[in-house]
Amino acid sequence: MPRPKISERREQAQQITSRLAQLYPEAACTLDFQNSFQLLCATVLSAQTTDARVNKVTPELFRRFPSPEAMAKAELAELEEILHPLGFFRSKAKSLQGLARGLVENFAGQVPGELSQLVTLPGVGRKTANVVLGDAFGIPGITVDTHVGRLARRWKWTRHQDPEKAEKDLQKLLPPEIWTPTCHRIIAHGRAVCRARKPLCGQCALEDICPSSEVTKN
Question: Which of 5, 32, 56, 145 is catalytic?
Fold first, then answer.
């Protein structure tokens, strides 16, 4: 079957995003943070674990190390102790200290508001950078995490497994002003309904416009 034209895919995307906005009007970042530095650290920590677990360790982390300057001078063993419940705590501790030092040495201790600068920091890729830009700076960004990538492929918005290629496909379909909230809504829908192993197609409000709605009816 030939791939739908870009105009048809945009129309379908508009229908889906409109319904998502109705289904999840309050969808937002589920990481707890008070400033851009905290969000940057929390997003780095969220790799290969849940936001809920990250939210359990960050209060103590930021109590002890409230700024890039403080974290840059931290004992690595102390960071590892705090992050131990997350798994991969040694590599995550190194990433946090590395990005803190990068902020101090290259950005005067301030989190930069540009993607090209954010991705120069240790442990910070495009996904993390787009989270920070969207939720801390209000700069539109598409965050292709596992949920966004999975649902985008099911909706035929992209064919790519590679997050950066998928991000470019989504940018062509969605207007920038809805990039950030739409990603939060896709994540919410992916967690609640369009699950990885057993999507609840029969209970999905998008069933009539989803090209993959026959995945399962159970």
Answer: 145
Tell me how far apart the alpha carbons of residues 170 and 148 are, in angstroms, rounded to a whole number.
Answer: 10
Question: One digit per residue, pLDDT tens: the chain, 218 residues?
Answer: 566 788 899 999 999 999 999 999 999 999 999 999 999 999 999 999 999 999 999 999 999 999 999 999 999 999 999 999 998 999 999 999 999 999 999 999 999 999 999 999 988 999 999 999 999 999 999 999 999 999 999 999 999 999 999 999 999 999 999 999 999 999 999 999 999 999 999 999 999 999 998 654 44
217 catalytic per annotation: no
Please indicate whether residue 127 is annotated as part of the active site: yes
Selected catalytic residue, list 5, 32, 56, 127 = 127
